[in-house]
Amino acid sequence: MEPIVKTLFPFIVISVGIIAVFGGVMMIVAYTVLAERKVLGWIQGRIGPNRVGPWGLFQPFADLLKFILKEELIPDQSTRFIFYLAPLVALTCAFMPMIVYPFGPEIVGSFDFLPYGLGEGIKSLPLRVADLDVGVLYVLAITSVGVYGIALAGWSSNSKYSLMGGLRSSAQMISYELAMGASVIGVVMLAGSLSLGDIINAQINSTFRWFIIPQFIGFVVFLIAAFAETNRVPFDLPEAETELVAGFHTEYSALKFALFFMAEYVNMFTVSVMAVTLFLGGWYIPGLDYLARTVGMEWLFGVGTIGYALISHVGFLLKIFAFLFFYIWVRGTLPRFRFDQLMNFGWKFLLPVALANVILTVVVVFLVGRFW
């Protein structure tokens, strides 16, 4: 029994990590939807959901139950296999980047208390599922593939409105993916690594602590491109209710529509985590370790302790929630662009600014390395 347990232990740990990340993200997505309806109600002078549960807290579960029980309609002339596959592609590509994000610092200590000698040789517990040396490229690649779900949904529905939404999403992704990739290059040069963990450590050891200070232009470009990548206002042209009914998911209903709905909010969470990791130090809270030493609580909140990991993780989530609130705030404030404005802004303004930021970063990094 003991050899079998030892053999399966790494797979069990990874499985538990994946389930924890999946469950946590799903809960955040559910209550992001509720928060959006509440905040938009506040912005527009309305109350928002307040019937299901205290203060409407059970509204996300009521919505999910409604989607599950609703009648599902399939267009007669649709390509059925692709029609079924498209929402799964969109949601899967939205979730896949989660495995490489560091959600907190490593917990350092002895794990000899585990049975069957499973803790032997384990000195630290990283709060992430996988640590890829090319984590940045992995995230950018997976998020790029996610547009196939939208494009396939538009094509397979055999509807002119859905097809236009899919084509718009493809053109939008090509236009803004370049700017987003260029905005990340400056951070990669400053960190000297494509690993998300190394980028956080580089921010901890840098003079600025957070890369948003030396890479403010890159941060603004990334933020704008993130709105376009997730098809959110003012870049929600693939849906555009006033023009395309509902765009790429016009013909979708019931649970398949819910999958697209969840994919959008998971993508919001993904780019928020990416922005926090690249520009706001990830889980790192400046001064936390110094404060623990000052008040004599290093044994409880010092680097490597469970207390330090817990506070850092909470700080990480608060940064993400700030980005999600900004998403909602922009939706309640700005109007939708025309499609020609969207393309012109992406190619004629955002991409040149991103490339200029790359050139400027190259010059600064060269000068600092050459003379300092």
Describe this structure in words.
This protein has 372 residues and is mostly helical. The chain has one domain. The chain has a two-stranded antiparallel sheet with strand order 1-2.
Question: Gist?
Answer:
The protein has helices spanning 2-43, 59-69, 80-95, 135-145, 147-156, 160-191, 196-205, 216-229, 241-244, 254-279, 288-294, 298-301, 306-331, 339-371; strands spanning 107-108, 124-125.
Low-confidence stretches: none
Mean pLDDT: 86
The percent range for strand residues is under 5%
Main beta-sheet strand count, sense and barrel state:
2 strands, antiparallel
The class by helix and strand makeup works out as mainly alpha
| Morphology | globular
Order of helices and strands: HHHEEHHHHHHHHHHH
The largest sheet has its strands arranged as 1-2
Q: Helical stretch count?
A: 14
What is the number of domains? 1
Distance separating the two termini: 59 Å
Quaternary structure classification: single chain
In total, how many beta strands? 2
Computed over alpha carbons, the radius of gyration is 22 Å
Report the helical percentage: 55-70%
